[in-house]
Amino acid sequence: MKSAQNSEIIPHSHEWILLFLLSIFTFLLYSNTLQGEFLLDDLRLIPRNPQIQLTELSLSNLLKVASTTRPVAMVSFAINYYFHQYNVTGYHVVNILIHIFSGIALYFFIKITLALQPSTSSYRAGKYLPFIAVLLWLVNPLHTQSVSYIIQRMNSLSAFFYICSMLCYAKARIAAKILPKIILFFLCACSGFLALGTKENAAMLPFFIILYEWFFFQNCAWKWAKKILLYSAVVLIGAVVFFYLYSNILPTGIIKKGYEPYSFTLGQRLLTEPRVIILYLGLLFFPHPSRLNLDYDFSVSTSLIHPPTTIAAIIIILLFIITAGYASRKFPFPAFCVFWFFGNLIIESSFIPLDLVFEHRTYLPSMLLIPGVIVMLDRGCRNMKLKAAMVIIAVACCSIWTVERNEVWNSALDMMVDSAEKSPAKARPAYNVACEFAKQGNAEKAVYWLKRSVSQKSFNRWDLLKYDQDLQKIRHTKEFQIFYQKIVHKNKNKY
What is the mean pLDDT of residues 96-111? Predict the structure, then answer.
């Protein structure tokens, strides 16, 4: 596949002016979260985590912070602490900047990739298409969880390094001189390691670099693919044999024990996730704030036909993947984007014991799905006025909805209440509301929400009522004592 640059190119000066304006616009959309509070996992990993309390900026101290899981993200929190301790504004500013820089890196990656068209293709993307695609991605309110929830910097920062690695690989492959090529391959590897050091789902990066090579530089040639599949099979078999012979390297029963806190099994999770992925698709293309939720109450699939949407979701996903594979030569960019979306959901949407649904999991997968859809719409619609109207309406709606959703993220109590109202049959959201009122010392409202939480079948954390420090302010109040005695009396076997 040869590089075929578009005949229409935005001058570099204009390009950077547009990206600057886009950055300012994105920052303004998120500016109403700058005073947003620490909540949930934020509290555990930032204010209550002495490991990030960096008081001296030295290599030894940074290495000490990094001696944990997800070291790159933890170092970033430690640097935040070094400059302004627990002033929440600084943490939010960094999160917003990561989102903006991710958009800029994505812009250049889309621009390069769209220029790698087959010599037989008559389609040439408009010069503003990468900019429009990134604009729509940046303003999508589904990403507020990745940006406004401070601890999800782990997710957005990993995605930033991931797309930077892809960008460096693409630039290295088209570089004419050997020295720039070597430097870019080195930067590609460095970005990849940083992505993996920020969050484990970046483990899919090598696969997508190979897939990118196959799509855009090997013209989807099966001869080349067979060689890669053969090498990959050898590596995979070698890994299986190694872990079989040295099974003590892996924690015993890691998967089985991981499912103990959940009300679903590994098999049920595998059956449920296709429905979750369809939910993600719906949220991406209609992300109204009323549909967004921090803690979804999502029903579990117990078989292929219970509920019937389980088999329907599996069929829909398979049709997407088969269609993308069939169209890979004629429509390489949209096809690659389909594989990108589903492939980058594999780790968090498969057998690993995690909660069923979280919006932040769409952040990296959506980076190319939205541009892929825009390219297909651009190819199919010739009416410029109609396309402009569609873009304006989409940007306007998403921008308004992002600001609206961020108003909820701005307050821990508002977010907890919003989640509890959207998941009324789930115990955890109601419990989180109770904790917020308890931290304010409001025993009456805290006990009301505790009663709502423990009345649900899904409530199984009886130990929290006795030991959770979030309830400390109300633990000795009359309201809590009466409630606690009644609960203990009814559930003696659980204490």
Answer: 97
